[in-house]
């Protein structure tokens, strides 16, 4: 499975960005799709997760500001990020698990929020 993430960039605090991730290259069924992020000097952390059945969960730090969605038919996922804060600055990675239990990472996309 290849994952292509896009949509990162530079935005002012309070602004919005939408990240997208497209999975391709395999006939394996995608089970969960999620977004992680890693800020400089910090560990990679889970931001949001969505299952094929529609289960959704968010990190406490982004609840009410971020919205994750997916298109199962297209194997794509999005992360709508509103009310961005400087603390959201990080490299964002899309990540998926297949129904075989294998998992894959995208290449990461930089999000920078200026205060």
Folded structure, characterized:
There is one protein chain. With 115 residues, the protein is mostly beta strands. The protein has no helices and 11 strands. It has strands spanning 2-6, 9-12, 17-24, 30-38, 45-50, 56-58, 66-71, 76-81, 90-98, 103-105, 109-114. The strands form 2 sheets. Strands 2, 4, 5, 6, 9, 10 and 11 form a 7-stranded mixed β-sheet that branches. The protein has a 4-stranded antiparallel β-sheet with strand order 1-3-8-7, with no helix packed on it. It is globular. It starts with a strand and ends with a strand. The mean pLDDT is 96.
Walk me through the topology.
Elements (H helix, E strand, L loop, with lengths): L1 E5 L2 E4 L4 E8 L5 E9 L6 E6 L5 E3 L7 E6 L4 E6 L8 E9 L4 E3 L3 E6 L1
Parallel strand pairs: 2-11
Antiparallel strand pairs: 1-3, 3-8, 4-5, 4-9, 5-6, 7-8, 9-10, 9-11
Question: What is the helix content?
Answer: under 10%
Strand content: over 45%
Principal-axis shape equals globular
Alpha-carbon Rg, integer: 13 Å
What's the short version?
Helix content is about 0%, strand content about 55%. The chain has no helices and 11 strands. A hairpin with a 6-residue loop joins strand 4 (about 30-40) and strand 5.
């Amino acid at each position: 499975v290849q994952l292509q993430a896009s949509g990162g960039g530079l935005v002012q605090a309070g602004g919005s960005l939408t990240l997208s991730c497209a999975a391709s290259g395999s006939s394996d069924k995608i089970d969960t799709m999620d977004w992680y992020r890693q800020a400089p000097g910090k560990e990679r952390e889970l931001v949001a997760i969505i299952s094929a059945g529609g289960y959704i969960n968010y990190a406490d730090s982004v609840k009410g500001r971020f919205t994750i969605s997916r298109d199962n038919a297209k194997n794509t996922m999005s992360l709508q990020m509103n009310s961005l804060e400087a603390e959201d600055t990080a490299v964002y990675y899309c990540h998926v698990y297949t129904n075989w239990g294998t998992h894959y990472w995208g290449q990461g996309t930089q999000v920078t929020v200026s205060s």
